[in-house]
From TrEMBL:
Domain of life: Eukaryota
Protein name: BRCT domain-containing protein
GO cellular component: nucleus; site of double-strand break
One GO biological process term: DNA damage response
Upper taxonomic lineage: Eukaryota, Metazoa, Ecdysozoa, Nematoda, Chromadorea
Pfam family membership, one: RTT107_BRCT_5
InterPro entries for the chain: BRCT_dom (IPR001357), BRCT_dom_sf (IPR036420), Slf1 (IPR042479)
Natural source organism: Dracunculus medinensis (Guinea worm)
Domain BRCT as annotated: residue spans: 1-64
Database matches in PANTHER family: SMC5-SMC6 COMPLEX LOCALIZATION FACTOR PROTEIN 1
């Protein structure tokens, strides 16, 4: 469907991504990286409805944090509702500052966490334009 509409689907996070489409919003590395880049985080209906219309529809209507959608959707957890709302707020905020600005631009972070968590958090910060090192390398 995406290819038929002229899109270029990717299952990996890379610099060419402009939108993330997900069936459920969850707090994971991919979604947090997209939020830190100010990308659209959209519901699956975006692809389905666009395919039916035979053209890409306005992504704002399908954004997880869209205020109209937020009023009628029941989130199972309050933190997921906050994540959905934040995804839209960050996209708008970063677009207003600069189209190339990211959430962690100019950040230099030392992370105090386990090595396993460090790898995930570091990638989110790097994708968001910052630099992160582990506390053991900071001396």
């Amino acid at each position: 469907m995406v290819i038929e509409l002229g899109g270029n689907p990717s299952f990996d996070f890379n610099g060419s991504i402009t939108h993330l489409v997900c069936e459920q919003i969850v707090r994971n590395e991919k979604i947090l990286s997209c939020i830190s880049c100010g990308l659209y985080v959209l519901r699956l209906e975006y692809i389905m409805d666009s395919y039916k219309a035979k053209k890409w529809l306005d992504p704002e209507d399908y954004e997880w944090g869209n205020p109209i959608f937020m009023k009628k959707y029941q989130f199972t957890l309050e933190r997921l509702e906050c994540l959905a709302r934040s995804s839209r707020q960050w996209r708008i905020e970063l677009q207003e500052i600069s189209p190339h600005r990211r959430a962690f631009s100019n950040w230099r972070a030392v992370l105090y966490c386990s090595r396993r968590r460090f790898v995930e958090i570091q990638r989110i910060i790097i994708n968001g334009g910052g630099i992160a090192i582990h506390r053991f390398k900071f001396r």
